[in-house]
Design brief:
Number of strands of chain B: 13
Largest interface: A-B, 46 and 63 residues
Strand order of the largest sheet of chain A: 1-2
Strand content of chain A: 5-15%
Strand content of chain B: 15-25%
Shape of chain A: extended
Bound molecules: iron/sulfur cluster
CATH topology of the largest domain in chain B: Alpha-Beta Plaits
Structural class of chain B: alpha+beta
Distance between the termini of chain B: 57 Å
Order of helices and strands of chain A: HHEEHHEEH
Number of helices of chain B: 10
Shape of chain B: globular
Oligomer: heterodimer
Largest sheet of chain B: 4 strands, mixed
Radius of gyration of chain B: 21 Å
Largest sheet of chain A: 2 strands, antiparallel
Order of helices and strands of chain B: HHHHEEHEEEHEEHEEEHHEHEE
Radius of gyration of chain A: 22 Å
Strand order of the largest sheet of chain B: 11-2-13-12
CATH class of the largest domain in chain B: Alpha Beta
Distance between the termini of chain A: 66 Å
CATH architecture of the largest domain in chain B: 2-Layer Sandwich
């Protein structure tokens, strides 16, 4: 786990106080409606990672005592069989990203541990251009206030890390063609 | 309060400002009768008929207009509807950028907008129109389809281009309005005063983006779907016979929030911010990405941009 330095903490605090501190009166009379799920890190506010129901913390099973880590690259057959890995080279496997010594954590190629709420650092090792664009708010989605507190989505909120291609969606209904639109009778004017 | 100024949209009421009480009362009643005669129906109130152009109203007059509207909405929808009058934030000009390399044409934005901005459900009015285009043709309106309806989007060989009001810096729509019912605000939002609009639809003919929509019939907005947080120049419920358009969610953005379409978009294609803030995401896009303006050759100078994020 990386501990935030004092300056990143201060920056986070500044972001949290942002709207109240410098948005001026209009923002003050309408309280921000954005939900804050996790504390800000590096001044970035992210939601909870989208874990499968009941799966976290991983250490409730992978406690390192009753279940010893098996470092051998293999296809999982007993557990997690729902996960289909379709991300990068075929040789990739769980412990390339998940940390064998602390399962509640991820790790970078360097071995440095990274929390699930900062998984973008892990993604950014290969997708550096996307991480750069995400940090400035061009890649990915932000909600909240354009001039204050905003929540970023994590990479994994849109891209399943095990199979990251963005999934196709059913479109909402097409507009009604003008010839089928009937004016309703009555009303003022 | 309207009696103080006795404005008269049909002209020729100069004498009334100096007129005495009883005469003024008489004139008021006469104008109301005339209102009923002119509009062919009796539902428009005297106050509404006498209301001046929003830009010319004093602070007190605005408050009393808002008060009247809130009462009308309460009677109509059976719930509190707040009509705000939030002014532009000094030092802010809004800009928008849409990432054509990411939009998948799912139309989530269209319906989020309808809900947020109290558009009529039937007859249907939608401020955002998503065009499906051919990748081979590029941005070419002759190859654009707005009625696409496959099982899943995006479809092979296509890209998607949502179009809404481009909040032009040189808006042809405002120039042609014969009564000055539509104008560009200081923060760059082009607005309509629905109480001053006469429904001539000149602005619709002038807008090259099809961004303006007319209430041909009485708008149908189910009471339980009314968004009660409204702005006078934005999403307050509209009457029949007036023109409406995207206002960058004026009721949200003037309070610091992102527009509804930005927040709903599942692909994060929609970007919004202050063009005058050099640290904003919108400025980063303009300075670092490939950006174009739609129909740039017309010199409407949109503050709405399209870009390629990849
Ligand atoms: S919601 Fe986003 S992805 Fe869907 S059509 Fe609108 S802009 Fe495109
Ligand atoms: S897009 Fe159309 S409605 Fe919007 S400002 Fe430009 S001309 Fe006016």
């Amino acid at each position: 786990m990386r501990f935030p330095t004092l300056s990143t903490l201060a920056l986070g605090l500044l972001i949290l106080l942002g709207p109240a501190a410098f948005a001026g009166p209009p923002a003050a009379n309408q309280p921000s409606e954005i939900k804050v799920d996790t504390p800000a890190q590096e001044g970035i506010q992210v939601p909870k990672p989208p874990f499968s129901e009941g799966i976290f913390p991983c250490t409730s099973c992978h406690d390192g005592k009753s279940m010893k880590p098996n470092l051998k690259r293999r296809v999982l057959t007993d557990m997690h069989t729902d996960i289909i890995l379709n991300h990068g080279p075929a040789s990739r496997w769980c412990l390339d990203c998940h940390d064998a010594n602390n399962r509640d954590s991820l790790h970078l190629a360097s071995g440095e541990k990274v929390s699930f709420t900062a998984s973008y650092l892990l993604c950014g090792q290969c997708h550096g251009d996307k991480l750069r664009d995400w940090r400035v708010g061009v890649h990915g989605k932000r909600t909240g206030n354009w001039n204050g507190l905003k929540q970023y989505l994590l990479c994994v909120n849109c891209h399943n890390p095990h199979s990251p291609r963005f999934k196709a969606l059913k479109p909402m209904p097409a507009p009604t063609p003008p010839e089928q639109i009937k004016a309703r009778k009555g009303g003022a004017r | 309060m309207t009696d103080q100024k006795t404005p008269c949209p049909s002209g020729g009421c100069e004498a009334s400002s100096s007129a005495g009480g009883s005469r003024r009362k008489f004139l008021g009643a006469a104008t109301a009768a005339m209102a009923a005669a002119l509009t062919g129906c009796g539902t428009i109130s005297k106050e509404e008929f006498l209301q001046h152009n929003f830009k010319e109203l004093s602070k007190d007059e605005v408050l009393s207009v808002i008060d009247r509207l809130e009462k009308e909405y309460k009677a109509k929808y059976g719930k509190e509807v707040k009509v705000a009058n939030t002014p532009p934030i000094p030092g802010v000009i809004f800009g928008y950028a849409l990432d054509l390399s990411r939009c998948i044409g799912c139309r989530r934005c269209v319906y989020a907008c309808v809900k947020e901005n109290n558009q009529s459900r039937d007859p249907q009015i939608q401020w955002i129109r998503v065009l499906q285009m051919d990748k081979e043709e590029g941005v070419n309106l002759q190859h654009a389809d707005q009625y696409y309806n496959p099982e899943e989007v995006p479809e092979e060989g296509h890209f998607y281009m949502p179009v809404q009001c481009q909040q032009c810096k040189k808006p042809p729509c405002t120039k042609v309005c014969p009564v000055g019912a539509t104008w560009r605000e200081k923060d760059g939002i082009v607005v309509v005063d629905y109480n001053w609009c006469i429904g001539c639809r000149y602005c619709m003919a002038a807008c090259p983006y099809g961004a303006r929509h007319f209430n041909w019939g009485e708008p149908n907005l189910p009471a339980d779907e009314v968004n009660p947080k409204t702005h006078y120049l934005g999403n307050r419920p509209r009457p029949k016979g007036v023109v409406e358009k995207c206002t960058f969610c004026i009721q949200r953005t003037r309070n610091g929030r992102y527009p509804a379409c930005v927040e709903i978009c599942p692909t994060g294609s929609r970007k919004f911010g202050n063009l005058l803030d050099k640290d904003s995401e919108i400025r980063y896009i303009l300075e670092n990405k490939r950006v174009f303006k739609f129909k740039e050759d017309l010199n409407t100078q949109p503050n709405f941009f399209y870009f390629y994020g990849v």
